[in-house]
User: What shape does this take?
Amino acid sequence: MALNDTTVIIAAAGSASRMKGEDKLLADLCGRSVIARTILAFENAPSVAEIIIVTKEKKIPQYEMIVASCGATKVKKIVAGGETRQQSVINGLKASESESTMIAVHDGARPLVSTELIEKTIADARVFGGATLGVPVKDTVKVVDGGLVTDTPDRSKLYLIQTPQVFKKTIYVDGVNFAIAHGLDFTDDCQLVEAVCGKIAVTEGDYRNIKITTPDDLIIARAMLGGDEK
Assistant: This one.
């Protein structure tokens, strides 16, 4: 039986600057909005005790309606984000009232994450203190400086990191406090834990767990779900 021990913070306060004016989280994805699909993936995860959504303040009423319409009972609060991703996630952390022992952070724009992979990442984080979904890099990667190749990293050691990223709450809070004390602002939640020398396992993920960043990503996500490309 799964432990009901995880608070999930869904980061949904980004600017969507590469979506040509379309709000990617509200875009239709085969009958449901992108954000609704993201919420429901965690709603259906047995380990999840509560969900906190962080979005722009003006969108909170709209998100409240989405949560109500999809019947997500684990969403306890929808709060305003900050000026950066890190600040937004910290706002979500402060809003948590659960006694959960684990914290999971997920991009609202990753709607195709499976409940099975969510559970696997949480399970790995319980063992190691932290875990993130990731998939091996398929292509050769070059380090480029001034338009010239300077290095070719060993591809076998490179992973594309996804979300959720899950941590024991005590370790994550230590990372947050360290970042605040030293004026650091990270774009990746694993960096908070790395900063206090925490261990992070990579849970083998799924290439389908894409992040909706451009209009083309919506076309790909619809195709993966078997829908049309409108």
User: Anything to note?
Assistant: The first strand starts at residue 6 and ends at 12. The radius of gyration is 18 Å. The first helix runs from residue 34 to 43.
